[in-house]
Amino acid sequence: MKHSLVVAIVSAGVTLVLAWFGVTSYFGAHPVAWPFQVALIGAPIGAFIAVVAGFVLPSKLVRLILFFALLLLVWGVAEYGKLEFAASYAEDRLAGKLWYYGWIAVCAMLTSVLATAADRKR
Fold it and tell me: What is d(CA 79, CA 73) in angstroms, rounded to the nearest whole number?
């Protein structure tokens, strides 16, 4: 338990560092308004998910596949929201929420993938 928690916290830190250096903006988050904010919200959520999933799903491979599939899914949702928001000239509020909350979920799932991949136990 203690080792998994430390790995999850370090993984959250890696996600925050990546966001700080603009990786989230490079991959589609808003370039000015909230590229680091989504990581501040999503990284702790992803660390929590990774630790809890370690108890619920015993297989590391299953967790990795699940988290990576979810990462791709939420990134697709965020990209769809971005494209629709831009196409509506910032009028479509639902698309804006999909874009913003989608990027929070991307940061959460990235943290979960990193924590699961780095965890030596199970």
Answer: 10
